[in-house]
């Protein structure tokens, strides 16, 4: 599988980790899930992210999951693996393992202990040194890491660390950050890297309008993100917004703290992608009222999609 590059575009789905009713990793569901994302038009997959419940997996399970996904994806989908860790040694160990399996690259979030611009820069400079030639994604998600990374710091990292090939933009919504980074690269001040955006796709049309290259996030209907990115790439922003609007109520509901991932897994199970919507403990579960909300949103979404012919 080719390595991740700064030219990456499209939709890299943040995949869930399927579990059986006994809490064990469901390998059969992983196969169905990978096939489903490929058939839905995904460009790539990202695994072992926060919404993949990576912190709940053992080291052995993480490797087993990565091996299964990479093998199933084959030549169809490049796979990016989250390797964030408190120290560089375990990060490098997992990176070496997944790259040997055939992963396209890795993703690294900053530890919460970083509080200054220099600390952030020095950390990612160290990541570049530790990972050697492996291309990596800088995950900018201040809502969970509590680390704010200013555009000037990202530009400095991009200039000095050539293996940083992608920004996973997950500020809230941070549209001005995308504009600043694109202005810098357009002027030739920095290298142009790929920018894929997160936050469940809630701001995807606006992010595409600011110069993002696509999405790296999860949503129980990846068809929404694929449709929005595809229409923007064709130059039809209005059609992209029409598609986005049809899915927005469910995407908004899925962004709730606590039950958001349970909602996503419930719908994926309902669609036959995974066997159960179970989260590994500790994890939330949908109440009967939550399920009723989701079913209502699904019905309304289906009607709206029929109305716009999507």
TrEMBL record:
It comes from the Bacteria. The keyword Transmembrane helix does not apply. Pyruvate binds at residue 216. One of its GO terms (cellular component) is cytosol. The keyword Iron does not apply. This is Dihydrodipicolinate synthetase. Gene3D superfamilies: Aldolase class I. Keywords: Lyase. GO terms for molecular function: 4-hydroxy-tetrahydrodipicolinate synthase activity. CDD domains: DHDPS-like (cd00408). It comes from Devosia geojensis. Belongs to the DapA family. It holds the Pfam family DHDPS. SMART domains: DHDPS. InterPro entries: Aldolase_TIM, DapA-like.
